[in-house]
Design brief:
47% of the residues lie in helices and 14% in strands. By secondary structure, the protein is of the alpha/beta class. It folds into 2 domains: 125 residues, Response regulator (Rossmann fold, 3-Layer(aba) Sandwich); 55 residues, Winged helix-like DNA-binding domain superfamily/Winged helix DNA-binding domain (Arc Repressor Mutant, subunit A, Orthogonal Bundle). A 6-stranded parallel β-sheet has the order 2-1-3-4-5-6, sandwiched between helices. α1 links the parallel β1 and β2. α4 crosses α8, α6 crosses α9 and α7 packs across α8. 35% of the residues are buried.
Amino acid sequence: MSEEISVLILEDHQVTLDGLRFGLSQESDIRVLAATANSDEGLRLAQELHPQIILLDLHLPGTLGPKSMVKEFCELPESKVLVFSGESRLAFVQAVLSLGACGYLLKSESVTRVAEAIREIYGGKQPILSESLATGDTKLTKSEQEVLRMLARGMKYQDMAEERLTSPATVRKQCELLLLKLGLKTREELIAWAVQNGYGNLDTTT
């Protein structure tokens, strides 16, 4: 009998979480150590349980934004990260892989494919990608464009949060998602990108 591959699942949609946990548990060579919907709890579990594979959704409640979360999990010496996300834009995927993730699967994939990817990564193959990943230009949502316009006008997180009727922590996470999506590293680079692409112009239409 082959050695079991230990897996930790982080996913905030309960139906998806239950499906992954049940489906992967049916695989004779995969052992699900734990599952959680919170990034902070997930990091604690990873440090405590030392899973060989971490199956990681990018949009999770908790104090960690997407970029910092991926970095934290990828820095764990005994674990490899397989991202499981609905975000299919190529720039976003490339940014996540550049942070150290070993694979990136879309949520349209079956549990069988997820299990195959876990085995491939455990065996040393990487990067593992969904075949159907989009390769077109990066598309920004209206919400993301609004955040870029505020950044380009020099607004701070607190001011942006008040105008958007949300919290500074939520705005910070939105900015981290934009960094990943656009392949940028710092808030300053994001502001410069916004200005260079016309988001500082109040008359900009999209």
